[in-house]
Design a protein that fits this description.
The chain has 74 residues and is mainly beta. Helices cover 5% and strands 16% of the residues. It has one domain (1-74).
Length: 74
Amino acid sequence: MEVIEGSRICGKTLGTSFVNAVRPSPSTKKCPTDYLPCSTYTSVDNTLCYRKTDERDKICPITEIKYKYFDTKE
């Protein structure tokens, strides 16, 4: 995708788009019944919810960042 200071940033998309994702209720600040927050470290405005029966790592955005060195010299 993007090269920043010599590092390539890559990602893959799975699950629902960010726009259509399930979010906590503005009044209760909790995810709907049978849903959990993707992260407990984000504000309510930035939290997405996933169904308890789904795999968190396949539904929630950016659950992990790995740094990997690739020799890009040709």
